[in-house]
Amino acid sequence: MSFAKLLRWLPRSRFARDSRGSIVIDSLGGILLLSLGASAFFSFWEAYQVQNRVQKATYTISDLISRQRGTTLSRTFLDGMEQTAEFLMHDDQNAVMRISQVRRTSGVATDTAGLAIDWSYSPCSAKTALTTATISQVRTKLPLIDLGASLIVVEIDVEYDPGMSEVGFGKMTYRGFLSSLPRFEQQFGLTGTGTTTCL
Questions:
Q1: How far is CA 43 from the centre of its chain?
Q2: Are 191 and 155 in contact (CB under 8 A)?
């Protein structure tokens, strides 16, 4: 029997008219669709929670650093900030952090040039330190500052894997970025030796 004849014969066949067991097949299909929908919903919700935690951690770390008194920050203190950020995340999530101090050395607030990096530090060297030559990486995210003013820039990257790469929902990286003026000091120096091993 040719394929064309088979297609004409199937609608009239006993198999096509027999509806026994159709509710089982329909139920299985419905359960499968509901399971996929529920999995996608929970993955989306968890991803939203991770993004929310990254934002909160960024604000928390930035606020803690900006409130420090004294003219210097130690690398050991900034290592502690990295541990604090990870405490705010899930146990299986690693926070990659970079803290930098940006200062206006020339020009006026509206100038795109005239900014310099005083220092930049990433615990465990997890992220490449910023330099004045590479400040363009963050320049568009910085607010306007006057001559002599300094900003503390906190960047946090957290990788999230929902475990659904088969349906196009694979690994992603959430990034937190915040710059703030020191509250009690004009600027900070950086001292000490940082850790080379992160948990």
A1: 16
A2: no
Distance of CA 167 to the CA centre of its chain: 21
CB 86 within 8 A of CB 159: no
Two tokens, residue 156 = 């946090």
Give the tokens for residue 39: 């999995």
Specify whether the CB–CB gap between 177 and 154 falls below 8 A.
yes
Q: Which CB contacts under 8 angstroms, 24+ apart, belong to 41-50? A: 43/162, 43/163, 43/164, 43/169, 46/160, 46/162, 47/160, 47/162, 47/172, 50/89, 50/90, 50/93, 50/158, 50/160, 50/174
Q: Which of 44, 77, 18 is nearest to 163 (CA)?
A: 44
pLDDT digits (tens, 9 = 90+) for 53-81: 999 999 999 999 999 998 899 999 999 99
Q: pLDDT tens across 128-157, in order?
A: 999 999 999 999 999 999 998 999 999 999
Backbone phi, then psi, for 195, in 5-degree steps? -80, 150
Residues in the chain: 199
Residues 123 and 198: beta-carbon distance below 8 Å: yes
Question: What is the distance between the alpha carbons of residues 162 and 173, in angstroms, rounded to a whole number?
Answer: 11
Q: Where are the strands (E) in 2-105, listed by range?
A: 72-74, 95-104
Rounded-to-integer distance, Cα 183 and Cα 24, Å: 67
pTM: 0.77
Backbone φ, ψ for residue 146 (5° rounding): -80, 170
